[in-house]
Amino acid sequence: MREFTARFATDEEIRGWDSHVTANPSGGNLLQSRAFAEVKKDHGWAPRYVVYEATDGSQPSYNLALEKSVPGLGRIWYMIKGPDVESIDDMPAIVEANRKFVAGAAKGVFAIKYEPEILASDYASGLLARCGLVKSFEIQPNDSTAVLDTTPDEKALLKSLHSRGRNAVRRATREGCEVERVELTEENMRAMYALMDSVGQGHAKVTLRSYEYYRAFWTNFAERGQGRLYFTYEDDEPSVGAYVIAYGSKGTYKDGGSTPRRKQYGDSHLVQWRAILDLKDECDIEQYDFCGTPPSDQLKNKDHHYYGLGLFKTSFTKTVVDYVGVWDQPLNKAKYAMWANIGEKVQRQLWVRRTGQPFY
């Protein structure tokens, strides 16, 4: 088993943060990016840039930890979509490295929430539990998600889609549906937000953050050349919208929305297809994450709140992956017990009342 040390990144490393993160063992995640760190900095979280170095001299792992102060307890870290490790077998050494780190340079952190993109299995859950970690609730919507391999050429890629998705793309193309990549103007961003809200988000139970949050998010990624917005139109108004991101070798369908009862069949599929091809051709992505489905064993469960979203996303790919989810490392057991029993619930409620936004 490898051993690791933990430290804060240098100023120089932070300036080149994205190049470091995308060189991580698993290629990084957009929620570990500098753009996202800047968004969260303005919404209650302090970014902490953490580097794990293996004692065997292999590639370091660069990870974003979001820090928030909790009155009476200290500071909590949320290692969103991290840490990025080669294998689940590296996690015990990472946990130990953080224990030593918090006893020194990162003093005052009473708990760390991990959310690694490690595939779920009985072995993985057992190992994390043996590390002293405690299973917590899911925070991000893509602990289960549909992933499309984008390495084949265009013809082979289209053929690889599920027949429902492939037929929808072909029909929309045949019937003259047009997809436009649009500038990130204030008008277009507000139109996109309206489309997201009009989904109702009904049975999907998707809670929208404020327009200001999405505006900052979309703008931060677009300014770095990582994010882009696509529309289709009906009656000269946007009818389907998608905001997608290229981060390293990964593409992600981050945000989407549409108007109900549209006339054009397959328009939402064509938006995705256009975005996938653009990111493949211009950014060399190797995979595309549709960002959230029901767990792989609940895809046919019509009562699941992501059932409709899952039906759409799995019309592109049959590959649905389940990750291990969120696990907490109690660094001060007494304070963590207070946090787990009542503190977290109270803090989340107070934050929503004060800001109208989710705590995490």
TrEMBL record:
<keyword id="KW-0012">Acyltransferase</keyword>
<protein>
    <recommendedName>
        <fullName>BioF2-like acetyltransferase domain-containing protein</fullName>
    </recommendedName>
</protein>
<dbReference type="InterPro" id="IPR050644">
    <property type="entry name" value="PG_Glycine_Bridge_Synth"/>
</dbReference>
<feature type="domain" description="BioF2-like acetyltransferase">
    <location>
        <begin position="166"/>
        <end position="292"/>
    </location>
</feature>
<dbReference type="InterPro" id="IPR003447">
    <property type="entry name" value="FEMABX"/>
</dbReference>
<keyword id="KW-0573">Peptidoglycan synthesis</keyword>
<comment type="similarity">
    <text>Belongs to the FemABX family.</text>
</comment>
<keyword id="KW-0808">Transferase</keyword>
<keyword id="KW-0133">Cell shape</keyword>
<dbReference type="InterPro" id="IPR016181">
    <property type="entry name" value="Acyl_CoA_acyltransferase"/>
</dbReference>
<dbReference type="InterPro" id="IPR038740">
    <property type="entry name" value="BioF2-like_GNAT_dom"/>
</dbReference>
<keyword id="KW-0961">Cell wall biogenesis/degradation</keyword>
<dbReference type="Pfam" id="PF13480">
    <property type="entry name" value="Acetyltransf_6"/>
</dbReference>
